[in-house]
Write a structure and sequence with these properties.
It is a single chain. By secondary structure, the protein is of the alpha+beta class. It has two domains: 56 residues; 130 residues, no CATH class. It contains five helices and seven strands, in the order αααβββββββαα. Strands 1, 2, 3, 4, 5, 6 and 7 form a seven-stranded antiparallel beta sheet that branches. The longest helix has 38 residues. The relative contact order is 0.15.
Length: 195
C-alpha cells in the first residue's frame, strides 16, 4: 500500500506545478472552446438541411416562357375579358402599354411558386402572372404546373403564396403582344386595333 502512495507522489511531482485557479481556468477555456465548436457545427448542419429542403421542395417546372404563358392564357383572358367588358375605352387607349406580367421566384430563380389554396389548405406549385387594368387594379393569377385547369387569383380569401418566395417581374407584355401570341379571346375591336 505504501508503494502505491509513493508511486502517486512520484507521478504528481513530475507534473508541472499548477495552482488550483490555473487548472480551473484551463478547464473553463477548453469547455468553452468545445461548446463554441459544437454550436457552430450544429448551426452549419441546420443551415445546410434547411437549404436542401428549400431547394428540393419546389419543383423545377417549365423554363420555356411561351409554354408557361400558354398555360396562363385562360385565366389572363378571363381578367382581360372582364376588363374589356367594363372599361373598353380605357383598354383601347392603352393597348400598347405593358399590362401582362410573368413573374419569377427570386428565391429559387425558377417560375414556380408554392400556393396555398385557402379553401382546401392544399399546396399547389404554380406559375404566377398578373394583369394590370388601365384603372390601376392588378390581378395576380396562378395556374398549377401539373393541373392547368386549377387556376386561382392571389387574394387572402382565395389563395396565397406560401413562405418566403419573393416574386420579381421576368417578362412584360403589352395587350397587343399578349393578344397576338397567347390569347384565345376574339374581340372584333381588338382585332381592328392590331390591323
Amino acid at each position: 500500500m505504501d508503494s502505491y502512495k509513493d508511486d502517486n507522489k512520484q507521478i504528481l511531482s513530475k507534473l508541472p506545478e499548477m495552482t488550483f485557479e490555473q487548472l480551473r481556468n484551463d478547464t473553463k477555456a477548453s469547455g468553452l472552446r468545445n461548446f463554441c465548436r459544437s454550436t457552430v457545427l450544429f448551426l452549419i448542419i441546420v443551415v445546410l438541411f434547411g437549404f436542401y429542403k428549400y431547394s428540393t421542395k419546389i419543383p423545377d417546372g417549365v423554363t420555356n416562357i411561351n409554354e408557361i404563358m400558354n398555360e396562363l392564357a385562360i385565366p389572363i383572358d378571363n381578367s382581360l375579358g372582364i376588363d374589356i367588358g367594363f372599361n373598353k375605352d380605357q383598354v383601347i387607349d392603352e393597348v400598347n402599354e405593358n399590362r401582362v406580367f410573368l413573374y419569377k421566384n427570386s428565391g429559387t430563380d425558377r417560375f414556380v411558386f408554392p400556393i396555398k389554396d385557402i379553401n382546401t389548405g392544399k399546396t399547389h406549385y404554380c406559375y404566377l402572372a398578373s394583369y394590370e387594368s388601365p384603372s390601376g387594379y392588378t390581378t395576380k393569377i396562378v395556374t398549377d404546373i401539373d393541373h392547368p385547369n386549377w387556376s386561382r387569383i392571389i387574394n387572402k380569401k382565395v389563395a396565397v403564396i406560401e413562405g418566403d418566395n419573393p416574386a420579381k417581374v421576368s417578362r412584360k407584355y403589352t395587350i397587343i403582344e399578349y393578344y397576338e401570341r397567347y390569347s384565345s379571346l376574339y374581340d372584333e375591336w381588338l382585332s381592328d386595333q392590331i390591323d
